[in-house]
Amino acid sequence: MLKNIKLHNFKNHKDTAISLDDSRMHALVGHNNSGKTSMLQALYYLGLLVDFSFDQIFRDEASPQFIVRMEEKQMSVCVNGFLEKDSQKHWEASYSWHKQDSVNSKNLWEHEHQKYWWEGGFCWHDRHDDCWFPELSWKIQHFPML
Q1: What is the DSSP string of 32-99?
Q2: What percent of the chain is modeled with pLDDT above 90?
């Protein structure tokens, strides 16, 4: 069950944190352009990372230069909760993008659609010669009953 959602510099969310109760029914309510769809997109991208790689998901309008807040150099999406039948097993999953300015292009190897490999890690190279590095993490913790 999903308990908490945190968005940092994701689209129009500077720092947004939402805590969900155990009711199983939730609604996102707000004015136009208040970030409701962006919240759902952030969760959707996280769900896609189960079956697809960063370069398959974060392309075109979902590339880092479009989903990271303007003028920011990093973004993150973090969610956590517990396994439905066992509230003693907590989980957390997150992804993030970090920008490194003006990467030396001679150290880059061009792959399709402006994607690059940089020192063993994936990098998305934008039109300003900046390189965006992704990170994905997840963990499950078991808290024994006392």
Answers
A1: TTSSHHHHHHHHHHHHHTTTS-HHHHS-GGGSHHHHBPTT-SEEEEEEEEEETTEEEEEEEEEEEEEE
A2: 45
